[in-house]
Amino acid sequence: MTDLQIAKTVTLKPITEIGKKFGVDSNNIVMYGKYKAKLPLTSIDKDKANKSNLILVSAISPTPAGEGKTTMSIGLSEGLNRLNKKTTVVLREPSLGPVFGIKGGATGGGYSQVLPMEDINLHFTGDFSAIEKAHNLLAAIIDNNIQSKTNSLHIDPRTISWKRVVDLNDRALRRVIVGLGGTTSGVPRETGFDITAASEIMAILCLAENLMDLKERLGNIFVGYTFDKIPIYAKDLKAQGAMTALMKDAIKPNLVQTIEGNPAIIHGGPFANIAQGTNSVIATLMGMTHSEYTITEAGFGFDLGAEKFFDIKCQSAGLKPKAVVLTTTIRALKYHGGADLKLLTEPNLEALEKGLPNLEKHLENIDKFNVAPIIAINKFASDSDGEIDLIIEFAKSKGIRVALANVWGQGGGGALELAKQVIEVVEENKSNFKPLYKWESSVKDKIAKIATEIYGAEHVDYTAKAKAQLNKITKLGLDHLPVCIAKTQKSLSDNPKLLGRPKDFIITVREIEIASGAGFLIPITGEIMRMPGLPAHPSSENIDIDKNGEITGLF
Question: Helix 211-219 and helix 200-207: axis angle, to 10°?
């Protein structure tokens, strides 16, 4: 059966029952129908949260074959609950871009899913819409101020860095001209669109600790300069109040359930290749407040989402993870070893062995943060015993824990070995998280630290535009901020064609965006785009609905 067909076989429990199991009174949750709810921020207790065991699920460099971090995260949470460890999985919300583009859905798979999967994948509780509206409200206010003759801040249109956003993959909107149509239609200028997941407001939502912190961060968004070179922020436009009002419900985490009827929190959805790639601090603290174990995941490979999880989110919120579960698949390693995408289901020990350096590099990177790793082999039916044994022997040779997990086919039952390994790592208490770099270091030093130590680059080059932006960042007094590097997810380098473990390559920073509200800088490398495009045959071609409202094609 497809993921959607499996999901439809499950009789969902009322969300009030899930809330009770989670530990929140039904009178305190905001219902969104029978099976979804918003959780009140008053349910967060940082002292209790500090006693929870936070486990990060990451992965090797992703491939077109898929690695299954979300499926692994959900399955692991089910397995821990089966072992009588009160566990909550905390995940990001799906963006409509990938749902209609390549993925077709992002709520796990098989018997390790969060439900109701149709609702979660399509609009959910409206968080993305609120983010989009708040973002575009600021854009409208900026253009209105340029047009105004009585309330003008004299913003130089050429310096405006704030684009618009839409939650779809639409490459035609990357660069646009607004204000055409005469003097009543605004001042013509070149701008563009990013996807909503790349909005700074998405990043702010996922790092804010409460409503007033959200409001302050929104006010600190850098907009551009006046003609007199004075920096302008959203608070100068008096925009933060209205923007926060639009976000008053979006800031509350969403409660749903797993296939096995356990609580799951889903909140925020920044991509890891162009943003920080992790769910909200609020959602993580909510899960930790009410759980002995809290499972979360970071987008794409360890070099992207996990590095940002550690260096930005954990430092910002004071989180200390106890273990990293590194999801790997035999198919992906064979791909990194040079095997043809169409032949990944065929046994190929030679390609698998050639692909192991990619796994090895990610394990080395985990060690840099002083957190214990566990290799989770996400099992597929095509995996041969010989291939499984090869990874197990590799792990043993490195002294690293490894577990075979069939979470797609067996749910929590397929994750019991992995869950036991996680419990043992936590009880050994050998992890002592440390960040890769200090925020106080120079911007170039922070970028170089990540590029050379995490990616494995020889050195970093900067375009003339990026160098000029570095000077601007220093003059604005923002060089103390951490860096959130935008890079292709397909390779450890900034060249998507360099698979496996590339060496002797150069990372090129072509520009650096300022996200002063979120509290980080965004160096953009290679050809990475903050507005993705659709493939030749997008997943939207397979999604349909019948006269009874039954949706098909989500997977």
Answer: 150
Residues with Cβ within 8 Å of residue 303, at least 6 apart in sequence:
61, 362, 365, 454, 455, 487, 492
Residue with tokens 């992906």: 332
Residues 6+ apart with CB under 8 A from 205: 127, 131, 214, 247, 250, 251, 268, 280
Tell me the per-residue pLDDT of 32-53, one tens digit each, with 9 for 90 and over. 999 999 999 999 999 999 999 9
pTM: 0.95
CA angle 433, 213, 292 (to 5 degrees): 40
What is the maximum alpha-carbon separation in the chain? 75
pLDDT tens string 489-545: 999 999 999 999 999 999 999 999 999 999 999 999 999 888 999 999 999 999 999
Q: What is the pLDDT of residue 377?
A: 98
User: Could you give the CA distance from residue 410 to residue 402 in angstroms, rounded to a whole number?
Assistant: 18
Res 360: pLDDT:
98
Ordered by where they begin, the domains of the chain are 3-126+250-428 (3.40.50.300), 129-240 (3.30.1510.10), 443-525 (3.10.410.10)
Q: How many C-beta neighbours within 10 Å does residue 137 have? A: 17
| CB-based contact 56:392 (threshold 8 Å) | no
Which residues have a catalytic role annotated? 69, 71, 92, 103, 272, 300, 380, 408
- pLDDT of amino acid 488: 96
Determine the number of helices (DSSP H) and then strands (DSSP E) in the chain. 20, 23
CA angle 212, 216, 221 (to 5 degrees): 145
CA distance 112 to 379: 13
**Residue 386, both tokens:** 């010989």
Residue 521 Cα to chain centre, angstroms: 16
Alpha-carbon torsion, ordered 288, 294, 299, 303, to 10 deg? 100
Strands (DSSP E) contained in 351-393 are 372-378
